[in-house]
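Re-run with default settings, no changes from the original entry. Doing this only to confirm the output is reproducible before filing.
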Amino acid sequence: MHDPHFSSAEREAVYRAIRERRDVRAYRPDPVPEATLWRILEAAHQAPSVGRMQPWNFILVQDPTLRQEVYDHFRAVNARASQLHAGDRQAAYQALKLQGILDAPVNLLVTCDRGRGGEHVLGRATMREMDLYSTCLAVQNLWLAARAEGLGVGWMSLMEPAHIAALLGLPDGVVPVAYLCLGHPVELPTSPLLGRVGWRESLPLDSLVFADRWGVARPFAEAPAGAPPPPTGLPAPDLPVVLAPAPCSWHPPDDPAEGVLGADLLRRRFRRLPTPRGALGRLEALALQLAEVQRRMRPTLRAPWIVVMAGDHGVAREEGVSAYKPEATAMMVYRFLSGGGVVNALARETGAGLLVADLGVDHDFGAADALLDAKVRRGTRNFCQEAAMTPAELAQAIAAGAETVTRLPELDLLVLGEMGIGNTTAASALVAVQLGLTPTEVLGPGAGLGPRGLARKQEVLTRALALHGAAARLDPSEALRCLGGYEIAGMVGAIEAAAARGVPVLLDGFIVGAAALIAAARTPACRTALIAATRSAEPAHDRVLAALELVPMLDWGLRLGEASGAALAFGLLKAAVRVSAEVSTYEEANLEEPLAAGGQT
């Protein structure tokens, strides 16, 4: 007789597939091997069905033209569906990617043949929909088998069944049940997408279990023996993250003098490497800076975190200083939360942690799993008419940024980025007052302004500096209050807190540079922790870097923001750390030193 019991490992594998099954929307282009696809379809075909009717069929949609028609149909239905929502809810809906029709290597339609087995098939006499329910069991089997194979599945529910039936040539009596996308996921999220973006929270099981009659609670004294364990690998409840880095056991020592000693010891080690003196150039300088800031001889990058701080600006809403509508801030944050941003791709590539912090977005995200809610207000005020924020709001935003750093586990590198329509204008105003520049000297295209938009932006900057310039030039904190943004203030707090904690700060582009300029003016000691990742295409960024005495690692004309340049440069820091720790010295490699030549060894 077949043993009905699973081993503990087999049982855990089943529960793991159930726990980790996700509705996947983004796929890598890698093809799904034919043998794997057959195994998954075979698992679907093994589903139970009432009366053994087996009502399912599987149509693999391979023709690119046909897929495009399905995609165009989805777009039309999706546009109509978005009109069912309003306000923040509609913005959330429109920002979500709800399908992967064109990306996934496999598209398939699971159908139900409502005539299979005959009119009087066993078990369907009173419940005529049992064939549909049976087909859904096949979909469930398919989904779990795909997860066991390391693949992802997405169910495209926004379709008109009659249209899809006609498009794919279904005969009368055969109805579409599930249009599925299948392939290797770009990432397998740790929680469902709609939970991550705050669309809807998971219902507790005990609210859904009744005794004998509807609504009569059936409490459990304790979890039944053999119940599946709680999900593993999910973010801690008090720190939602998009991607968690590997754990790190290092903490910086309390004595700052150890930083100087550590860097000096590392400098001596570099001199003992079998390379010409200075041959590693800035790679060596980066490693030495990391060692000094982290206060240890061999710097580490085991727990780097990318923090993207987001906020909206009254000047963007009322003065038209951006090529994008202000609502784009919230839509971009949703993009980060759902894993579809440039910074998400780079975080996955580098293995860095990613945290999105809402300091002042003009949108209510709800209890989004992957968002740190540190909102001060829904957008700053229009600084052409009044100060962007009150003193209390400024203090709250700076404190929130600092608290973000203290909450990150085992942090040993802070990679800063931002998102906020209109924040290039705010950063330009801050740089102008800090460096004594004119609006013309700080003027840049931001997210893509044309000549007319640039003229408008210059006029706005001129008015803002006339209103606040005198007071702002005297005090960097006052400049930040009058002309900044909540996300910029948050970055100031984060920079100051990271430097105090012995954590190097990798700066992204112009807006982050403006925050660093304010932080350095407020707290000069934090300068030593700053590392410039990139030279932005914004013309005033050169002035910012010069004022901070920083030389960027990359000069690629980047102006995207969202920590993209810093995430790219992070790989160079990793290289510096590896070289400092892993390259053998003359003694370790049992090599003789060369004779001095030209003053070098």
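The chain has 21 helices and ten strands. Residues 226-259, 597-601 have pLDDT under 50 and may be disordered.
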